[in-house]
Design brief:
Layout: H1 20-34, E1 39-43, E2 46-50, H2 58-73, H3 83-97, E3 104-106, H4 108-119, E4 121-124, E5 127-132, E6 136-142, H5 147-151, E7 158-162, E8 165-166, H6 172-179, E9 186-193, E10 196-203, E11 205-208, E12 212-216, E13 221-226, H7 233-246, E14 251-255, H8 264-274, E15 278-285, E16 292-296, E17 306-310, H9 317-327, E18 332-335, E19 343-351, E20 355-365, E21 381-382, H10 394-400, H11 406-416
Parallel strand pairs: 13-14, 14-17, 17-18, 18-21
Antiparallel strand pairs: 1-2, 3-20, 4-11, 5-6, 6-7, 7-8, 7-9, 9-10, 12-13, 15-16, 15-20, 19-20
Helix pairs in contact: 1-2, 1-3, 7-8, 8-9
């Protein structure tokens, strides 16, 4: 599972007269090896700068000279990778060697893919698949209002061929990649559905993955699940909560189990929608100086019995949300201890068109000033899940197995008893 970042945008830098690849490479090395990069981040509508002086240029000179020597003296240089590709490979290796498990170096194309995962917008057909070595790609989930749904694909289908290529026995990633393609193009799928073999054509296009799901449970209990704090989750949350309130709910369960996190603005907006006037979280670190306090203004807070469901895969922004509810006395946390990711990754462009870096730069604290990285948020009411369901996506538990969901049923029991 990828744990999403508290993502923020950098200021673009000016080009110099040097070769673009040299500038990009030197600037990246300076950032990582000597902390000599100047960068800016747009925070809360204002631009802030962090400037650190470079103390040594020996490492950057060594690697720049090494690339120049390879370009000049390698006998088969015409047949080998370009200097730009070597610099790109070195940049990936340097960031990998930093020791930050959440750090990454992206080419421009890789960064666009990363940003798409955060925004929730994709190009494709909109299916979640796994691999069955004997039958092909198993369609676990068809997302709503997507090319796959419009083409007639159903959860439970098996895709045995993609554009004439048999995918049975293939590894998952290369098989799934065959379904991706140019926007507006058609992908032909051979689909096994029970005893039937179907031919389905889907036109690839924009896919937006919904983040928030709601329903009404027994005795006026509202249920609201947030799958991630990305994309339009805040807007979806507002609409979903308004709908539940208008229906007359008398208590609420918010489910962030399995939620890997998201962006800071999104989780702050959602927490502000339900909390009284209070501190939501505080950020501090390399880029946030002095510490930055995010608060709820209580303009739209709710006054209902509230339980937040968590588990070991509730991470990052989910933990900001859970701790804000818990420490401000707005509700109780039920389930198991959260993942424990209390650090913030920031991404910025090293040089326009040349590459991007994502690095752990800051930490976030709970409203009471607690650091939860590596610790997590402990529930007020600890309830373990059915062991057979622990690795099952909450979407499928709610759809097919909710009677076995020990955590959800415990929350319903507590709210019924009030």
């Amino acid at each position: 599972m990828e744990y999403y970042n508290i993502d923020r945008e950098p200021r673009k830098k000016q080009r110099t007269g040097a070769k673009p690849w040299q500038v990009a490479f030197l600037m990246l090395l300076t950032a990582l090896l000597t902390a000599g990069i100047i960068f800016a981040l747009l925070l809360s509508g204002a631009t802030r700068y962090t400037v650190v002086d470079s103390k040594s240029k020996s490492s950057t000179a060594l690697l720049s000279t090494l690339l120049d020597d390879i370009e000049k003296y390698y006998y088969f240089s015409d047949e080998g990778p370009s200097t730009e590709k070597l610099a790109d490979a070195a940049a990936h290796s340097i960031v990998d060697a930093v020791g930050d498990p959440y750090a990454a170096y992206y080419s421009e194309e890789e960064y666009e893919s990363f940003r798409s995962s955060i925004s929730g917008n994709y190009k494709g057909i909109g299916v979640l698949v796994t691999m069955d070595k004997e039958k092909g790609l198993f369609v676990e989930r068809v997302y709503e209002d997507t090319p796959a749904e419009r083409a007639g694909l159903l959860a439970g289908d098996y895709i045995s061929e993609v554009d004439g290529q048999n995918v049975i026995g293939m590894e998952l990633t290369p098989a799934a990649d065959l379904i991706s393609g140019e926007d507006g193009s058609t992908v032909h799928l051979v689909v096994l559905r029970g005893e039937e073999t179907l031919n389905i054509d889907a036109v690839r296009g924009d896919v937006y993955i919904r983040r928030v799901y709601t329903e009404q449970l027994e005795n006026g209990i509202g249920y609201l699940r947030i799958e991630s704090f990305t994309g339009n989750a805040a807007t979806e949350f507002d609409a979903a909560l308004d709908g539940l309130l208008e229906s007359g709910i008398t208590s609420l369960i918010i489910d962030v189990r399995g939620n890997p996190g998201g962006t800071l603005d999104t989780v702050v907006s959602i927490a502000d929608r339900i909390l009284p006037e209070c501190v939501i979280t505080t950020l501090e670190g390399k880029l946030v100086t002095p510490p930055e306090v995010h608060r709820s203004d209580a303009e739209h807070c709710i006054d209902l019995p509230l339980i937040v469901l968590t588990n070991g895969e509730s991470a990052s922004a989910s933990e900001i949300f859970a701790s804000a509810v818990q420490e401000n006395g707005a509700g109780r946390i039920l389930g198991t201890n959260t993942f424990g990711k209390g650090i913030v990754q920031t991404s910025w462009e090293v040089l326009p068109g040349q590459g991007y870096i994502k690095l752990t730069t800051d930490v976030y604290l709970t409203p009471n000033g607690n650091m939860i990285h590596g610790i997590g948020v402990a529930p007020d009411i600890e309830v373990a899940q059915d062991p057979e369901l622990e690795n099952t996506d909450i979407f499928f538990i709610m759809r097919d197995m909710r009677e076995r969901d020990l955590q959800l049923n415990a929350a319903i029991g507590l709210l019924n008893a009030q």
